[in-house]
């Protein structure tokens, strides 16, 4: 018996990195998983690897019409949707004085507007299921400022607030909405992001977060084990923001 037996999940940005880890984790626990990405080749390869009970669909998460299509295709393939993981994200680092307007708008569209679109689109399907769990991947950048991160910070702080509003509005339908706030995750891009520094030294746990650890938290929030958790900021940062 899996912890997500009988549940249908949609995961955005699921073709690689942390998103692919979420796809594998939820599928391994019995969920039927629809995962989306702009990266078609990587998505198709992951579906071929995982096989039955997974479905890859190409998606630009900023396209509202495509969101409606994704929900319909998920329902046709597997039934009403129980879980939505808004994982797709984008970063652009530059100081405010030099930050390009088009880059700012793009980050906001992918990190913030797409979360709004996804939450809105999935509500009718979760009402059919008579329960649901929406999991928005934010960041510790949605809890505190970071130099050269004006767009990323704006978008992730917005996700934190949007999550709370959605939790208040959707609780009456037994739809839970929570945000996850990771610190820097050790993915393939980790060395580049870390700039070669030993970032683990500033964390009380003295090590860097793994994508599998984030996926374990996603699994908990997707499952009925977290049935009374909603509107929460679920921080997973090794104690970094406790200082």
List the helices and strands and how they pair.
Elements: E1 8-12, H1 17-28, E2 32-37, H2 40-50, E3 54-58, H3 64-78, E4 83-86, H4 101-129, E5 132-137, H5 150-170, E6 175-182, E7 185-186, H6 190-194, E8 209-210, H7 211-222, E9 233-236
Helix pairs in contact: 1-7, 3-4, 4-5
Percent in strands? 15-25%
Overall shape: it is globular
Q: Could you report the average pLDDT, rounded to the nearest whole number?
A: 94
CATH topology: Rossmann fold
Tell me the major beta sheet: 7 strands, parallel
Low-confidence stretches: 189-196
Question: Strand order of the main beta sheet, please?
Answer: 3-2-1-4-5-6-9
Distance between the termini: 40 Å
- What's the domain count? 1
What structural class is derived from the secondary structure elements?
Answer: alpha/beta
Radius of gyration: 17 Å
- Can you identify the CATH class? Alpha Beta
Please identify the oligomeric state. Answer: single chain
**What is the CATH-assigned architecture?**
3-Layer(aba) Sandwich
Order of helices and strands: EHEHEHEHEHEEHEHE
Task: Count the beta strands.
Answer: 9
DSSP helical segment count: 7
As a percent range, the share of helical residues equals 40-55%
Keywords: Oxidoreductase
Protein name: 3-alpha-hydroxysteroid dehydrogenase
Family: Belongs to the short-chain dehydrogenases/reductases (SDR) family.
InterPro entries: NAD(P)-bd_dom_sf, Sc_DH/Rdtase_CS, SDR_fam
């Amino acid at each position: 018996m899996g912890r997500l037996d009988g549940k249908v999940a949609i995961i955005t940005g699921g073709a690689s990195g942390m998103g692919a880890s979420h796809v594998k984790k939820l599928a391994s626990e019995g969920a039927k998983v629809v995962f989306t990405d702009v990266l078609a080749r990587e998505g198709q390869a992951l579906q071929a690897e995982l096989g039955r009970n997974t479905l890859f669909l190409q998606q630009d998460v900023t396209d509202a019409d495509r969101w409606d299509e994704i929900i319909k295709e998920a329902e046709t393939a597997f039934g009403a949707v129980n879980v939505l993981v808004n994982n797709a994200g984008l970063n652009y680092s530059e100081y405010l004085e030099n930050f390009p307007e088009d880059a700012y708008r793009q980050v906001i569209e992918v990190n913030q507007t797409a979360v709004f679109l996804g939450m809105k689109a999935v509500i009718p399907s979760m009402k059919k299921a008579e329960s649901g769990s929406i999991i928005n991947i934010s960041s510790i950048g949605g809890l505190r400022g970071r130099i050269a991160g004006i767009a990323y910070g704006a978008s992730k702080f917005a996700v934190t607030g949007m999550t709370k509003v959605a939790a208040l509005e959707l609780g009456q339908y037994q739809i839970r909405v929570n945000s996850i706030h990771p610190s820097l995750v050790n993915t393939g891009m980790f060395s580049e992001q870390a700039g070669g520094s030993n970032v683990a030294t500033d964390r009380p746990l003295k090590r860097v977060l793994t994508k599998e650890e984030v996926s374990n938290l996603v699994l908990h929030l997707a499952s009925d084990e977290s049935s009374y958790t909603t509107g929460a900021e679920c921080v997973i940062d090794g104690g970094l923001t406790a200082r």
